[in-house]
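Review form for a predicted model. The reviewer records the input and the model, then writes brief findings.
Reviewer: anonymous (R2)
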Amino acid sequence: MNPEGGVTLAVLSDVHLEIRRLQLSRQGLAEAAVDEALAQMGRDAAARAAQADLVIIVGDLATGTDGIAWAETSFAPKPVVYVAGNHEFYRYEIDPLLRELHQRASRSSNVRFLENEQASFALRGQALRVLGCTFWTDYTLHGRLRRREMMEAAAQGLLDHRRIRSHSGQHFTPHDALARHQASRTWLEAKLALPFAGVTVIATHHAPLPLAISPQYQQDLLSPAFASDCSELLPYQPAAWVWGHTHYNVDCQVEATRFFSYQWGYPGEGMETAVGLLHLPPH
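Model under review:
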């Protein structure tokens, strides 16, 4: 129980199970030993999340649908909200995989998968909604006049545009990402505009503010492919916005909204591998 009242969220992202599996296999571990090592990572994360009311996984957990099984096994019976990152789609076509992710989550005991969708909960006597989507990006972090330049940089510099398929086997392009971002942003603002007598949490894989980018990458040409500036949504006063993708952790308050990320990152990056606990006071 939380003596202060309110709700506690366990947040994590960018676990990259597929990369951890590959690394362990290259170390000579048998498949069963690799499976056990990844399962132990889940048990360790669940132990850290024991006092949380809800787990939110904001993408890049694993490619395909593998992350849903890990989330279910690791955290059940605790409820889990899961949004896809860009890496879930590597070697897949986006829309068919989104259908598979929804179907796989619907067969789980505790995982809700969201893409431009809302999950509603009653936690500790108060209503809480999670508005979730991958979100992608608008490529204007360095200004609208440089959008085309930033999209060209992303097309050349990001593996997304070689490893993800959009439709009919075509490569997923920055124009595809922009269109999906605009659709998600329109959906998100429409949801935020609706009256809601409870706590609102936004969960996206791509980041919502420039402060989500590490200082060393603030001027990088690829940073606009990682974050958008969504400060115009702050007047809607969501209680929290959680995200991943940047491999840079943030915990700060901007106006009425708590901005929070807890990302594992790639093996060797030296980031903690547990969960971040985010307490939201009573609404």
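Findings: Residues 8 and 279 are 4 Å apart (CA to CA).
Further findings: The radius of gyration is 18 Å.
Recommendation: see findings above.
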